[in-house]
Structures are given as C-alpha cells and as structure tokens.
Amino acid sequence: MNKEEIVNKINDFLVDEFEVDQEDIQPEANLKDTLGLDSLDYVDLVVSVESNFGVKLVEVDFVGIASFQSFYDLIENKIKLKA
User: d(Cα 40, Cα 27) in Å, to the nearest integer?
Assistant: First the structure.
C-alpha cells in the first residue's frame, strides 16, 4: 500500500466515521480540532485504524500528532514496521 492509498483510505473512513466534510481534511489542518475529537473519539479512531490497516495504536503514538499529515505519517510508519 503506497502513501496515496493510505491517505485516501484514512480520509474515507474519517468522512464515514466522524462525519467530517472531505474538503475539511487538509494535510496541515489540526486533526483534533477538525474532527472534534474527545477521549471517546480517540478510541473510535484507534479501532478504525486497527480494522482498516491491521496496526495497533497506543496512547503514546498520539504524542506530537497534531495535523492530518503527521497522522498519515504515523499510520504509514506503523504499516512499514508491520511488514
């Protein structure tokens, strides 16, 4: 799975699961603010990532994750480490 496929898949499930408009998802946009994430939403996000990509996320993974781009990079790195 290449970077573009990862980004597209992430964006698709964010639109579906978090009811955010596709055009609001920009690489430099703030992930938490754009999605309106609270602590329960982070659990949903982790479950979505696990079911879509087969990788586990833990709380420490979100340290320093502010933008969609940093989230994309996190998922891409987790997938590479799994391979």
Answer: 23
What's residue 69's pLDDT?
98
Look at residue 82 in the predicted model and tell me its pLDDT.
87
Number of neighbouring beta carbons within 10 Å of residue 77: 12
pLDDT at residue 39 is higher than 90: no
Contact 10, 75 (CB under 8 A): yes
Report whether 53 contacts 79 (CB < 8 A).
yes
The answer to whether 1 touches 79, Cβ cutoff 8 Å, is yes
Q: Please name the helix (run of DSSP H) or strand (run of DSSP E) that holds residue 11, with its range, or none.
A: helix 3-18
| Residue type, position 3, single letter | K
Rounded Cα–Cα distance for residues 72 and 79 (Å):
11
Residue 6: C-alpha distances to residues 10, 40, 49, 74, 79 (Å): 6, 24, 11, 11, 9
